[in-house]
Structures are given as structure tokens and as C-alpha cells.
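Could you help me review a protein record that somebody else here produced? This is what I was given.
***
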Amino acid sequence: MTAPRYQEIKTGEIPTVTDDDGTHVRIVCGSFWGKKGPVDGIAADPIYLDVSVPPGERKTLPVETTRHAFAYVFAGDGKFCNASGPLAVPTESVGWADTKPPADAQNRSLVVFDRGDEVAVQAGEDGIRFLLVSGKPLEEPVAWYGPIVMNTQQELQQAFRELDQGTFLKK
């Protein structure tokens, strides 16, 4: 088990790249468009991007086929298009039944992608801002509850005992 740790990154330490169409990408972790983010040393070797696409623009972003990827929309709306046909999963109640998901990925939507080498997004009339996260599969069991992720239910229970006792974070 990896010991819990924390990396404090100030906003000024996060590199930003801007494409000709006005798309801004902040690279929090991993490498993208020739820049490297400040967060490092994570087992899944994630690429964690904060992407802003201007209104009406269509943007294609590369994703390695060996990675799992998702997008979390937190401003604006748009359509994500790729061969896998991702499903927008609202992270808060938005008043629609599970049988008819929305056509657009709106604010507070999680979009999970299948394997592919790119993610394409068509921004709505207000543009769209989302986190695009991809990582290498760990190929191990996952047990999680709330903010804590472990491999087994026993490890998860131990972590919550340590959290209750104030010994979860070690220096």
C-alpha cells in the first residue's frame, strides 16, 4: 500500500497552453502539447488537464489507447463525440430518469470514455470547461468509499479507523 501524501500546487505553478482556436489547457499532471504539469509520482501516471473550449468550437484532444479516460464538465455544456459513444452521468440530481440521459454533457456531468486515441468535443453556445483525466489501468482490485480508495474492504475499514483516530495522514 502506498502511504498517503499530499502535494501542494499553487495555481501559478500550473502551465497553460493556448491553441489557435482559443482552446486553453492547464496541465495539472502529466505531459500535454509539450508542457509538463507539476504534480508527479502517482502510480497510475495520470494526465490531468483543465480544458476550456470557446463557444461553438470543436476540439479533438489526444488520449493514449492504453489509458482509461473520463471528462468532468464544470462549466458550460457541449457534446462529446468519439467511437465509443460516451454516456454523460450527472453527478448531482438533474431531474431525468436513468432511461433517458441528456444529449449534451452539461455542468456537473461525468463522461466516461471507452478505449480510443482521441476525445472530440463540440462546445455549446457558452463554451465548455472540463477536466480531462486519463491514467494507466492499475490492474488491481479497487475498494472505495467517499474520498478513500484502497484494494480491499479490510484496507478500507483500516483507513477509516485511522481517520477516526487521527493517524491516517502520516508525516
